Amino acid sequence: MESVGSKHEQRSQATRAALVAAARRLFGERGYAGVGTEEIVRAAGVTRGALYHQFRDKTDLFDATVRTVEAEVTERIAAQMRAGADDPVKALRTGARAFLDAFAEPDVERVLLLDAPGVLGWRRWREIGQEYGLGVITAALEAAMTAGVMTVQPVVPLAHLLLGALDEAALKAAHAEDPEAARTEMAEALDSLLTGLLTRENI
Fold first, then answer.
1. C-alpha closest to that of 84 among 74, 94, 73
2. Please, what sign has the CA dihedral across residues 61, 66, 67, 72?
């Protein structure tokens, strides 16, 4: 038999999930500045008090929304990379292109690239990106080095550099006059960067 505390926790989790889901949709459609807390509360079907029980303020809710979107995007990219796991280099290249494609989606672009750095601050934005993306990149690099197709070197600093390059490529495309052309250019540059990491016989 479920305890009262257990039921309360389930209701609390359901309320939090409803708020984040509503915020994700609204922030993705109109951006952080274009959405008020009253609209989020109505869309989630909860009270204003419930919002402030779960989150300190609108920025705190946006932080949770960014984490949710990052988790979704990272899992999609990781799934595409796992599909080509028998070829570590292909997996890395697939991941780079999947990253750029995912961040080109209007709601993802608005939340993660256009709003998050300004609303949360660059440091917090990078912390969230590293929390979700760094492990995927590190694992892919380790696989390539273990397979002997990439020069063995310290993995963690290299993973940080690649994640930074991916973020910069996505930001560049998001703010370009021709985003699609910019993404193509960034994808080619990232591919060249990855090629430079390969052992000579695998270039």
1. 94
2. positive
Helix axes 155-174, 88-102, angle to 10 degrees: 30
pTM assigned to the model = 0.89
Q: How far apart are CA 78 and CA 85, in angstroms?
A: 10
Cα end-to-end distance, the chain, whole Å: 62
Once rounded to an integer, what is the mean pLDDT over residues 116-122?
Answer: 96
Ramachandran category for residue 44: left, alpha or beta (phi over 0 → left; psi -120 to 50 → alpha): alpha
Type of residue at 16: R
Q: Can you tell me the distance from the alpha carbon of 87 to that of 144, in angstroms, rounded to the nearest whole number?
A: 8
Check residue 31 and give left, alpha or beta (phi > 0: left; psi -120 to 50: alpha).
Answer: left
What digits encode the pLDDT tens for the residues 16-47? 999 999 999 999 999 999 999 999 999 999 99
The reported pLDDT for the residue numbered 121 is 97
Token output for 16: 């939090």
Q: What are the φ/ψ torsions at residue 198 (nearest 5 degrees)?
A: -75, 155
